[in-house]
Design brief:
The structure holds 2 protein chains of 2 kinds.
Chain A: H1 2-16, H2 19-40, E1 44-45, E2 51-52, H3 53-83, H4 86-91, H5 97-127, H6 135-159, H7 163-179, H8 192-198, H9 202-214, H10 223-243
Antiparallel strand pairs in A: 1-2
Helix pairs in contact in A: 1-5, 2-3, 2-5, 3-5, 3-6, 3-7, 3-9, 6-9, 6-10, 9-10
Chain B: E1 3-12, E2 15-25, E3 30-34, H1 41-49, E4 56-61, H2 70-74, E5 77-80, H3 92-100, H4 109-115, H5 131-143, E6 149-153, H6 161-176, E7 180-184, H7 188-194, E8 197-202, E9 205-210, H8 212-218, E10 223-228, H9 234-238, E11 243-249, E12 252-257, H10 262-272, E13 278-283, H11 287-295
The chains are: A mainly alpha, B alpha/beta.
Amino acid sequence: MKMLYNITYIEFKLFLRTFVNVFFSLVFPSMMLLIFGGIYGNEPSDMFQGHGTIDISVPAYIGMIIAVTGIMSLPLSVSGYRERKILKRLKATPINPFSILLSQILINFIMTVLGMVILFFVGKIVFELNFMGDFYDVSVAFILSTLSIFSIGFVIASFSPNMKFASAIANIVYFPMLFLTGATLPLEIMPELMVNISKVIPLTYAVELLKGVWIGKDLSEFSKEILVLCGILAVCTTISVKKFKWE
Amino acid sequence: MIIEVKDLVVEYKGVRVVDHVSFSVEEGEIFGMIGPNGAGKTTTIECIEGIRENYSGSIRVLGLNPQVDRKKLYNLIGVQLQETSYQDKIKVWEICKMFSSFYANPLPYESLLNDFGIYDKVNSYVSKLSGGQRQKLAIILALIANPKIIFLDELSTGLDPQARRSMWDLIKGLQKDGKTIYMTTHFMDEAEYLCNRIAIMDKGKVVAVDTVENLIKRFGLEETVVLKSDELNLDEIERIEGVTSLERKGSEVYVKGRETNLVHNILSYLSNNQIGYSDLKVIQPALEDVFLKITGKKSEGM
């Protein structure tokens, strides 16, 4: 535990020293909220069945943060550590090699939570954000969504021979996730074709689930989303465990 | 014996990169492995260090099997890998502190940094260190465990001659502190200067393991006496005991031979016959010659 704590603590500091990471997980989502909130405000909107734009955007943007940490940050750092033989060097110490990977998951999880907290307060202070959900349900939805998307990130890390490759794949996966799942632009404004495309992108289910529980719906109304996210988590974890290479 | 390798075989993508290798390392010695690129040195050291898994044969390090007792083993050995880099934006003290937390009884890294003369870099980013400083850091990280054995894989590659020299002193110092050192290198002078025993590896096999002196003897390498003289009778020189061949290059005469008393015999002949000469020098066969003879290749370090 001491080892895990120490490596996580140091890696956390390193994360905070990397501008791209900090910007996209902590600053960018709040920036988006300020821009779109500035345009639409948080008045009840017909498009969102009477909910405010901000009240719907915040849980959607949480999906965006999960995509940044899970699809960009996590696989890039893991495959970079492999390419630069940092994993190999750490393997030649008494630390359990899985602690190294676990520390990466933990940091990105913590950053996601942090990004979410900042987003929440910006929404609350600037736009009088409403939270109508059950804390427990939202936590479950958030943790499941995060783990599920992170597991996709791990598959990318497992298959990437180097950081360049990981970066290319991550971008290919990340940008459709960003724009075609409701994470940034609401699906409500999209034509049917786009809505159909969104159905094959895992993050869509996370965004739907998060939005739903945020406005107070019950977890039980989202059994399809929960099932899909659990399925992704199971499949991707299995693939990662089988295919992951330390060097 | 502190390391014992028996019948080690490693195959990689259908190619046998390590081919029935057996040798052992004694406690307290500096053991060096030399060989051309691709000979299997790094593969062998990585099997012993426990970071490579697919091999057959048996390896015991301090009586432990690296595959089974990894946690115990890594508290007893220190490892420097060929071409490791470190995390971006990590500082020297941070990586030292992180490594310290991995070990049961770590040495204080501050004093190690001090011993190695890089304490002033404690707050620097690792990426800002020079090549020599980074290699020193690699050894410090290997030493934090207070290990009995230290593995150094091509430690001085890429260092300037001065940094290389200071690295040699550090390694000799580690041996004085009672540590066993297993190193690979492609610098013959480095191996000759540092190592008590040397294993020469070529095409996956260990071709010879011995002291430098014995290797030279064993491969029947000759000494050369070079001298300048205008009054030499080459036929008579050729009859001196131990002389095997003779060559004149301009004003210099090269006399080769294998006899222990070769130099003495030549000198007595010269003084007995009152022959004047100048610039006499003796060229001892070096590890480089053994290497060349065994592998048919010049070492890359030369």
